[in-house]
Design brief:
single chain; about 190 residues; alpha/beta; Rossmann fold; 7 helices
């Protein structure tokens, strides 16, 4: 059964005292918001159009939209690595977000050099900040702050992540509710 965002969340009203400190959710792109397309070499990642044309994980994108509309007390950011030596990667990742999540303005998009520690790049990571990512290495680096693994069609084969996890193929409202529950559990 499919649910709407408000089936789980109701109409949230946030008072002025609650807006002073909004919990932040940092969402990865590659493999989380978008499908990860395994390649035999890195060459395709440098081709024009590669990042702009990555297919979305539609349920995940819709779940983030649910969070944005039903949970104003959560501040959502994109946090994605990009190939700094690619002439296309950064612009195309922004274009992808413009296309699929235009609700997230540029100030809520954080792009860090590929291979870097996302937590270190953010700098001021709060204890209640949450990272939603499909890559266990990023989640482990994010700790002791909260981390939630997105289980997609190709990861979690070794079952090494033992903490909070959500599944990309759940309907959007359910997935959004699961993300919020994981954020609140800590």
């Amino acid at each position: 059964m499919k649910h709407s965002c408000h089936d789980f969340f109701g109409d949230s009203v946030v008072g002025a005292e609650e807006t002073m400190h909004r919990q932040r959710l940092f969402v990865d792109m590659d493999g989380t918001l978008t499908e990860f397309l395994p390649q035999e070499s890195m060459a395709p990642l440098y081709e024009k159009g590669y990042f702009r044309n990555l297919p979305p994980h539609e349920n995940v994108v819709a779940a983030i939209r649910c969070l944005l509309s039903a949970h104003p007390e959560i501040e959502v950011h994109i946090l994605s690595a990009y190939l700094t030596d690619s002439p296309y990667a950064l612009a195309e990742k922004n274009a992808w977000v413009d296309n699929y999540l235009p609700e997230l303005d540029v100030s809520h998009r954080l792009f860090v050099p590929n291979g870097s520690d996302k937590r270190a790049c953010i700098g001021d990571v709060r204890e209640d900040d949450v990272l939603l990512d499909d890559y266990t290495k990023n989640l482990l680096r994010w700790q002791p702050s909260r981390a939630v693994k997105l289980i997609n069609a190709i990861n979690h084969t070794k079952k090494t992540w033992k903490n909070a996890a959500v599944y990309y193929d759940h309907d959007p409202a359910t997935l959004a509710a699961e993300i919020v529950q994981a954020m609140r559990r800590g």
